[in-house]
């Protein structure tokens, strides 16, 4: 049998793999991507969900990363205004707030001003925010400002001792939808996206890669030939190098688990909080899915890539205690309604402290017999598009005359409207489909943007949407997710294409599972 040869074979359907697939397909390359589970099922659905420069990275002098990430925020916001939106962060001030002692800035300050004794002075935070604003190249996001908490809605949920704060801008992003929409666009541009498909071997043969995959749902095996392989395995990048690609590499990843907890909504306004803990670490408290609050995260070394990351009791208590230092209302572990954890695939820079490891990425090319392997180490959700461009710069050396960069101005599917245009889109959707209510229309616009119209199609009333599985999830939407967004299970639909898992009862989940099983 004569096999088709692709230009690129990408291992891993996280944000980096799918971002690379989209970029490459748009430049006219033939692309195959294999993801062993669901798209975004590993780290890329477990982030804090921020397009951010990373204010704390300034204390590590990570200027390259912070500058790139800050500038990227508005580029990304404009091409996906449905799944991403600006967010203001309140940073309450208190004299006792401390540094992470390992940061270069804290070491420097301790030398010059020993009387600070590891305390992080307010002027330093102000200086950091000025730098953040200055480096960010903002045109949409408002700059940092001072805030009096003693007489403002933002101060209401906080303990009385917090009277002053700074506030600054970053952006929210629906991380798992970001992955899927990149994959969807890549497929529209001709890429072949295979989910539940594990790469089980990859060898260089006759000037090409011979990659073998196994479909974990059907056990079917398939062989692909490709000119270039891209290892975008995230936490598995080293494991893939060692066991599948069998390539010696001095680059290693350090696996650092981060967990989040979700509780019922704790305040009424839409801004988030940035808290500094006693240990010098920071945690975020963010409005989540309309009715909830998200708290995170932790930094704990995770030793076995194949061990599913879970939020431990220790991490739950840590996050609860951190929040309780700031909020008036006393949270308890029993208030937690959901947790999730992910493993950061960080470049191993031999730091003692997991919090101190760089969040920047590096692209390493391994070439043998003229057959290239491109490995992706590290990276942030925020930098996925720039990372894909860097990978394409390397691909360019092996597949000449490919087209230039294009993703900075190209909307993701459903994102072809202006930043701040969601209210108009919601109102148009309600006019076109009067049986929706505002909350429902808002959910659809935040998930699908302008594609919400196509998803609903020509239905004229609620009955025509088919079965209602609960919380406004209907058969029509489930069919769209299976046909157009690579979903294959109830979990894919309830926890990654949406977060309706927070709202459906066990019985409703079972009904959805049974319905999906009946379709096969
Ligand atoms: C707690 C936490 C909070 C974070 N918060 C933020 C944030 O707010 N903002 C931000 O910018 N970044 C954040 N990040 C970082 C960001 O989430 C990650 O850098 C990014 O998701 C990594 O994406 P990836 O595609 O490299 O890895 P992944 O998403 O893990 O994708 C790798 C994929 O490869 C697949 N794979 C592995 N082996 C095989 C194989 N043999 N065959 C087929 N497929 C395979 C896996 O199944 C996986 O889906 C956070 C990370 C964590 C853990």
Summarize this structure as a short list of keywords or feature phrases.
single chain; 520 residues; alpha+beta; FAD/NAD(P)-binding domain; D-Amino Acid Oxidase, Chain A, domain 2; Helicase, Ruva Protein, domain 3; 3 domains; 10-stranded mixed beta sheet; 8-stranded mixed beta sheet; 31% helix; globular; binds flavin-adenine dinucleotide
What's this, in brief?
This protein is of the alpha+beta class and 520 residues long. The protein has helices spanning 15-26, 63-79, 104-112, 122-135, 175-188, 237-244, 313-324, 384-398, 422-432, 438-448, 451-456, 475-484, 490-497, 506-519, and strands at 5-11, 31-34, 50-51, 84-92, 145-148, 164-173, 192-194, 197-205, 208-215, 221-231, 253-264, 272-276, 282-288, 292-296, 300-301, 338-347, 361-368, 371-378, 468-470, 473-474.
């Amino acid at each position: 049998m004569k096999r088709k040869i692709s230009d690129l074979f990408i291992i891993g359907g996280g944000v980096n793999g799918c971002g690379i697939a989209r970029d490459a397909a748009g430049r006219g390359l033939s692309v195959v991507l294999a993801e062993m589970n669901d798209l975004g099922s590993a780290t890329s659905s477990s982030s804090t969900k921020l397009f951010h420069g990373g204010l704390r990275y300034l204390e590590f002098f990570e200027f390259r990363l912070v500058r790139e990430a800050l500038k990227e925020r508005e580029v990304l916001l404009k091409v996906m205004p449905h799944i991403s939106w600006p967010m203001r962060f309140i940073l309450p001030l208190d004299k006792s707030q401390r540094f992470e002692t390992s940061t270069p800035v804290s070491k420097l300050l301790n030398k010059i001003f020993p009387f600070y004794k590891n305390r992080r002075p307010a002027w330093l935070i102000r200086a950091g925010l000025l730098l953040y604003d200055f480096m960010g190249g903002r045109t949409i996001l408002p700059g940092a400002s001072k805030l009096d908490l003693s007489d403002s809605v933002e101060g209401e949920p906080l303990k009385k001792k917090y009277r002053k704060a700074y506030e600054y801008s970053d952006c929210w992003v629906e991380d798992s939808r970001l992955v899927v929409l990149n994959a969807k666009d890549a497929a529209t541009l001709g890429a072949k996206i295979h989910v539940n498909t594990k790469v089980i071997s990859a060898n260089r043969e006759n000037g090409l890669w011979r990659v073998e995959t196994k479909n974990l749902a059907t056990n079917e095996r398939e062989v692909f030939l490709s000119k270039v392989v891209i290892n975008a395995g995230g936490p598995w990048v080293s494991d893939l190098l060692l066991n599948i690609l069998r390539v010696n590499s001095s680059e290693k990843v350090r696996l650092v688990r981060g967990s989040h907890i979700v509780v019922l909504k704790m305040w009424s306004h839409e801004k988030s909080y940035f808290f500094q803990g006693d240990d010098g670490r920071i945690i975020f408290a963010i409005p989540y899915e309309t009715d909830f609050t998200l708290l995170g995260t932790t930094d704990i070394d995770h030793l076995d890539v194949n061990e599913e990351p879970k939020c431990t009791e220790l991490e739950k208590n840590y996050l609860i205690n951190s929040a309780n230092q700031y909020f008036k209302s006393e949270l308890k572990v029993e208030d937690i309604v959901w947790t999730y954890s992910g493993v950061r695939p960080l470049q191993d820079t031999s730091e003692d402290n997991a919090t101190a490891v760089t969040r920047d990425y590096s692209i390493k090319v391994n070439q043998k017999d003229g057959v290239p392997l491109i490995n992706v180490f590290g990276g942030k959700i925020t930098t996925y598009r720039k990372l894909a461009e860097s990978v394409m710069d390397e691909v360019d050396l092996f597949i000449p005359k490919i087209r230039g960069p294009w993703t900075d101005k190209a909307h993701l599917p459903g994102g072809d409207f202006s930043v701040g245009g969601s209210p108009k889109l919601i109102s148009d959707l309600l006019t076109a489909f009067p049986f929706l209510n505002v909350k429902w229309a808002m959910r659809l616009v935040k998930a699908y943007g302008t594609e919400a119209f196509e998803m609903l199609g020509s239905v004229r009333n609620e009955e025509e949407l088919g079965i209602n599985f609960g919380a406004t999830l209907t058969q029509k939407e489930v069919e769209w997710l299976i046909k157009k967004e690579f979903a294959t299970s109830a979990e894919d639909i309830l926890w990654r294409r949406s977060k309706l898992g927070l709202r459906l009862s066990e019985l409703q989940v079972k009904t959805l599972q049974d319905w999906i099983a009946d379709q096969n």
